[in-house]
Amino acid sequence: MFPERWNVEICDVTLRDGEQTPGISFTCDEKMKIAGMLDQVGVDVIEAGFPTVSPEEKRCVTAISRMDLDARICCLARARPEDVEAAAAAEVDMVSLFIATSDLHIKHKYKKPREVVLAGALDMIDLARDHGLAVRFAAEDASRTDPAFLKEVYRAGGDHGADLVSFADTVGCLTPLEMYAVMSDLCSTVSVPLCAHCHNDMGCATANTITAAAAGAFQLHTTVNGIGERAGNASLEEVLVLLNLKGGVVRYDLSHLGELSAQVSTSSGLPVPRNKPVVGDLVFSHESGIHIAAMLEDPATYEYLPPALVGRERQFILGKHSGTKALRYITASLGHPLTDPQIARMLTLIKERSEHKCSITPTVLKELIHLVEEGRG
């Protein structure tokens, strides 16, 4: 079903779609710092913002364009002359020119026949190309668009010189099976490379993005920590790990993902869930005695994703589910090789504390070690 090695690139939209998370606004300095970190990872395209939003937004996009990054810099634009002019003035490499294509959106947003909407957008592709910009022609609400009209949109965009055409699951309504069917059909009938832009309203954004890649999509859109409107977008860190482990795409430097995640969390004010895949605090933490005993023999028994791949380290946590082997390993690593009776007593104390919702912090652990070593436990 899947190709052995996927031909893809990443366009990260944290600085634009991620910033559309309700209540979030990045400063220009924060945007530039995040852009630099995305470039360290090797992200191919950075969508720096939406220049027509405000003079300050335009200034920030321009500043990122002048950072001399390896990544190509993109910005968003409506199919309006003033938006295209703002994109050109911001010195970006590519403009993401979008129109809504579903009948639902066209009826309520444009109140014009869809052929008129398309004709106006094609003129804007011509204008952008006249400015020397690469063009990504994006269909908003593509997942609820009449398939025949969507293909017409993409073919017309290609005829006018669009370098890419983008499929947006704007309301996150597709399942992976649905995404595979629609993207396979589009990739086999549209000559311009396809992009996948997935939202996470039903929790399928990352799965849909990877499935789109498997079906032939070329450019994959992500945000750091999966932030974005409503439930967010496909998570950069999850998509990159999946590309590495499942798609044979190994050119990205995943060791920077942890610090990038932390920076976006700090700048956005949105905490990263502790069990968030790849970057959460608990992702490489293990408490179960059964698990740890096996992992001491071979970490692969309970880790498919090696922590070192993403610049992380595993840790063994003590609690009510811990076992003798884990406790012996941890106490010995702290310089306290305990006897079998001491280990047994320590394990009893740890389980008792844990069952009363007392976390076994390093301080608590040292306290318990001293108790049993002195025979007071």
TrEMBL record:
It holds the Pfam family HMGL-like. SUPFAM superfamilies: Aldolase. GO terms for biological process: carboxylic acid metabolic process. Residues 8-258 form the Pyruvate carboxyltransferase domain. Keywords: Pyruvate, Transferase. It catalyses: acetyl-CoA + 2-oxoglutarate + H2O = (2R)-homocitrate + CoA + H(+). GO terms for molecular function: homocitrate synthase activity. InterPro entries: AIPM/Hcit_synth_CS, Aldolase_TIM, LeuA/HCS_post-cat, PYR_CT. It comes from the Archaea. The keyword RNA-binding does not apply. The keyword Transferase applies. Transmembrane segments: none annotated. Coiled coil: none annotated. Belongs to the alpha-IPM synthase/homocitrate synthase family. This is Pyruvate carboxyltransferase. It comes from Methanosphaerula palustris (strain ATCC BAA-1556 / DSM 19958 / E1-9c).
